């Protein structure tokens, strides 16, 4: 009996699940390439500084391997943080709410009830339009705040899907701006 009620409650909660949206990988790629360029320049500066006449002689040259190792570790840590930030972000759109999950090691959740959503807007610059991703802004007058779904792939499709999911659960129509 208990197993049947558990399976029914699981199927009810799964039936509410309508849409899972993740961030585009394009901004992550830009961030990783930028970090690589930045740290390559920093590495070249460190090598040239120690090989130059200012710090290349004397006791300062023993710090070169330590500094270069530290810079390499910082680069690895920052790149891993960027990947974890991207991998941990997930937006779940259900009939009755939108859940924003954030985090890989720890899990933070924000839940916005669909009845509290008044407007949904799309924000894209030229590069984002060309690469077909953007930020979706959701306004909740009940919470008196904007919530951002950042770097969403095919945001116009996602907005129309959000509209279908949220409008199917209530009579009130949400104002959409693109």
Question: What distinguishing features does this structure have?
Answer:
elongated, 178 residues, 48% helix, single chain, alpha+beta, PH-domain like, four-stranded mixed β-sheet
Please describe what this structure looks like.
This protein has five helices and eight strands. It folds into two domains: 2-23 and 91-177, PH-domain like, CATH 2.30.29; 29-85. The protein is of the alpha+beta class and 178 residues long. The strands form two sheets. It has a four-stranded antiparallel β-sheet. Strands 7-6-5-8 form a four-stranded mixed β-sheet. The protein is 48% helix and 27% strand.
Largest sheet: 4 strands, antiparallel
- Estimate nothing, just give the exact number of structural domains: 2
Structural class assignment? alpha+beta
Q: Please tally the helical runs, counting DSSP H or I stretches of 4 or more residues.
A: 5
């Amino acid at each position: 009996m208990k197993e049947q009620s558990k399976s029914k409650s699981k199927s009810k909660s799964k039936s509410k699940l309508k849409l899972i949206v993740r961030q585009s990988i394009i901004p992550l790629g830009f961030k990783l390439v930028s970090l690589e360029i930045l740290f390559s320049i920093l590495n070249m500066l460190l090598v040239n500084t120690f090989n130059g006449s200012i710090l290349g002689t004397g006791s300062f040259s023993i710090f070169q391997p330590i500094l270069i190792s530290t810079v390499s570790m910082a680069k690895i840590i920052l790149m891993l943080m960027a990947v974890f930030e991207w991998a941990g972000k997930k937006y779940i759109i259900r009939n009755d709410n939108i859940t924003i999950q954030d985090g890989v090691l720890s899990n933070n959740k924000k839940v916005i009830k669909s009845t509290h959503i008044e407007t949904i807007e799309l924000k894209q610059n030229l590069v984002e339009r060309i690469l077909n991703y953007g930020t979706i802004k959701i306004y909740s007058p009940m919470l008196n705040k904007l919530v951002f779904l950042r770097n969403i792939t095919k945001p116009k499709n996602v907005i129309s899907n959000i509209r279908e999911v949220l409008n199917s659960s209530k009579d009130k129509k949400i104002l959409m701006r693109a």
